[in-house]
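Reply to dn_fold:

You asked what the input looked like. This is it:
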Amino acid sequence: MRLRYLLLAAICIHIAIAAVVYLAARYNIAPNSFSKGGIASFASDGHVYQVQINSLDRILKEDGVRAWFGTLAPVHIKLYSLCYAAFSPLFGQSILSVEPLNLLYYLATLLLVFALGREAFGTSAGLVAALMCLLILPSFLLHTTQLLKDPLFIVVTLVVLLISLKWITTEYTLRKGLLVGALGGVAVASLWLIKHSAWGVVMAIVVLGLALSVAGQVQRRTFQTGNIAGLAIMLGIALAVSSLVTPYYLPKEYWTPHRPHDAKAMPTASAEFDNEELALKSVEGFTGPGKSVALARARFALYPNARSNVDSDVRFASTLDILRHFPRALVIGMFAPFPSMWFSSGYQVGRAGRLLSGIETLLMYVVQLLAATTLWHRRRHLPSWLLVMTALIGLLALGLVVINVGALYRQRFLFWIVFIIVAADAVVRLARGRWPAYFGESSTPAVARSHA
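and this is what came back:
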């Protein structure tokens, strides 16, 4: 019942925020912050996506479903185009036309947060984690009203993380293990299609789940055939997806949709990647593995909004340079924007946006401290290690590559959410002593549960 009330509140809040943004844009209340259709300045990718969505919407209406399906375009663009086809007659080319899909993403995120918290720490922790996501991340809620790929990526990644967690907490039969492994493999494959630039982090999560599942079996001196078989299927699909799908779907960060057989079928990059040749040239002398990391950082060094860049002068010329930058990258990933930036005026979000980000960052400092207490309290609890290591791997990767704080902030929501799930257990432990009637149930044990 409490989860139902929380989701009902989330629905009302999300629709209200989307409506406020739409009205502010329509009546030109904040022209520097929102475009006519409600696309925010901090989500400028939405302008590119809107052109693509309009194109696919036109293809769907004029050429039919077959032509729409055959048009080469990213997954999130195709899903948004379906919303446009259904609701643009009512709301026009605005964020309200995609609100049903964005609302679904947001509710799915909260449900998955609840499921992860319940699986790792118990029902109360799951409820608290979902409530914390709703209350202390208003900027995430605002971002989910926009035309972005991040909400879809977050939902599917949380599905992968939940499946990886259940390899540790649940003992599957062979049949169930194979089914769950196939589902996990499809989810991982979907992530390659949605955001292939995060493929390394996704694979790290999958491998980490595999390692901790095996460690748990060794710790309990058991051999779970269903879990091992399912993990093998999941990992096999994940490793095979790029080689199998590439001939039919070439992933790009940005596309210009086109009609089938149109001569102008070439994808075009956004301003963020206009200087691809310069980025490639800057890493020509790179030695050792990790060149893709250096190239990704070089691309962000050409990011058009340089006012909020951090360590923009740092370049990687070798694998050793990357390893040396690990501590600084983790600090940036976990703690940026730093307090010195909280009260300045942002290029896209102004002073109010910087202040909001500062408040959220301060709250996340507290969340990270609570997560650290959970890890200490449950230092033999493998699910806690999976969640914390997932967050740290993601934040480290972002700190290595993304030098623009605005871009970092948006891409970090997933890993902040994971930290919130771990912190929720500490909140429940603190609350249990004060309100035992509400927080009295025991947390989920680390021992795997049987699942026939």
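The two ends are 28 Å apart (CA to CA).
Hope that clears it up.
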